[in-house]
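Q: what sequence does this backbone want?
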């Protein structure tokens, strides 16, 4: 793993949260994106070499809606940038980690993503991120 790529924060109201974080960070949200497969809308802030991602559910069946219902708004995941996501999934599985899915999928911000189950990481959901190659 190369670096912390971003921190993910689950929020109920994305517009309200963006306004709050713009004031808090004294920085503007540089990107918003919907991820239909995950039923979320996202907003990103750049923080030095890392990013902050706000996530809001677009449907009650979203994982983010379930997370907020159970735990409330707040820290959802830590994302690490990796060079080769398929190799990293294989390495982690060989080390005994449980993946949420065995194959990477499309995520926000031009990334391939995969998640390590929180039961293997002291309760924290870990996201692996690899920049999608552009031809």
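A:
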């Amino acid at each position: 793993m190369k670096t912390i790529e971003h921190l993910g924060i689950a929020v109920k109201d994305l517009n309200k949260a963006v306004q709050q974080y713009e004031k808090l960070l004294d920085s503007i949200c540089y990107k918003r994106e919907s991820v239909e497969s995950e039923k979320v809308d996202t907003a990103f802030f750049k923080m030095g070499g890392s990013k902050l991602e706000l996530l809001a559910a677009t449907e009650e069946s979203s994982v983010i809606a379930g997370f907020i219902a159970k735990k409330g708004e707040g820290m959802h995941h830590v994302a690490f940038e990796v060079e080769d996501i398929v190799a990293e999934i294989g390495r982690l599985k060989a080390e005994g980690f449980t993946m949420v899915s065995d194959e990477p999928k499309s995520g926000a911000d031009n990334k391939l993503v995969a998640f390590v189950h929180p039961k293997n990481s002291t309760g924290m959901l870990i996201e692996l991120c690899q920049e999608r190659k552009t031809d």
